[in-house]
Amino acid sequence: MSDQKHILMVATQKKIEALRMASGLTLLDDVVTIAALGKLPAGAEAAEQLEALEFADVPIAELDMAEDAMTHLARQIIDSDVVYFV
Known about the structure:
By secondary structure, this protein is α/β, with parallel strands linked by helices. It has a single domain, classed as Rossmann fold. The protein is built from 3 helices and 4 strands; from the N terminus they run E-H-E-H-E-H-E. The protein has helices spanning about 15-25, 45-55, 70-80, and strands at about 5-10, 30-35, 60-65, 80-85. Helix 2 (about 45-55) links the parallel strand 2 and strand 3. The protein starts with 5 loop residues before the first strand and ends with a strand. About 20% of the residues are buried.
């Protein structure tokens, strides 16, 4: 079996879809992390995906663009094997 990949899902425009995709990626035996630019939306759709991601122990960071978000995001990108922007 191969080594685990580190997958970063960056939620930019379609945040619910990014959560949904990250949930699907947890079916692989890889490490999945989510970085959301800004706040994640509220509502039933988001809650359903967040619950699944919490169950899978997927870390989610909501990055505030007014702070050092770009530095944090750049570090995550460098440390990841695969990066998706959605």
